[in-house]
Every structure is written in C-alpha cells, then in structure tokens.
Amino acid sequence: MIGAGIFALLGEAGAVAGAAVWISFLIGGVVAGLLGYVCSKLGMRFPSSGGLITYLIEVSDGDAWSASRRGSATSPRS
Questions:
Q1: pTM of the model
Q2: Distance between CA atoms of 51 and 63, rounded to whole angstroms?
C-alpha cells in the first residue's frame, strides 16, 4: 500500500535530482531489494522466533552478554 507521501517525495526528489530522478529511485529500489534478499537469507539460516538474537549469540560464540550489547546497538529505536 502506497500512501500520499510518495507523491511529496517525488516532488522533492525532482527538485534535487532533476531529470535523473528515475536513477535515484532505481538505485533505491535495488538497495531495498538486496536488503530484502539478505534478510530472507538470514531468516532461513536462523529460523527461530528470535532470529536476530540467535544470530548475535552465534556470532559472539555463545556469550549472551556481548550479544545483547550488539543487539541493542543495532536495533532500531522508537
């Protein structure tokens, strides 16, 4: 579902990028597609309910404390 913000974004991007605005949207789409691919591969590799935490514990050799520090540093804040 696309909201009305996409039209405002298109106007602002057109003012900055000019005629090359389609290239910037193409690059953004490729980056978003690659991110989706990486997230799906990570989800397939660690199919548990706590995928990110499971991954961080695996990377830190089972050290839950350092995994929690890395997870809090990389998790999005609201």
A1: 0.53
A2: 16
Can you give the pLDDT of all 78 residues of the chain as single tens digits? 567 777 787 888 888 888 888 888 899 899 999 988 887 887 777 676 766 667 767 776 666 666 666 655 555 554
CA pair distance 52, 33, nearest whole angstrom: 19
Report the distance separating Cα 34 and Cα 4, nearest Å: 25
Kindly provide the b/e burial profile for residues 30-50, where b requires at least 16 CB atoms within 10 angstroms of the residue's own CB. eeeeeeeeeeeeeeeebeeee
Residue 36, H or E segment:
helix 21-45
At 59, list the tokens. 């990377």
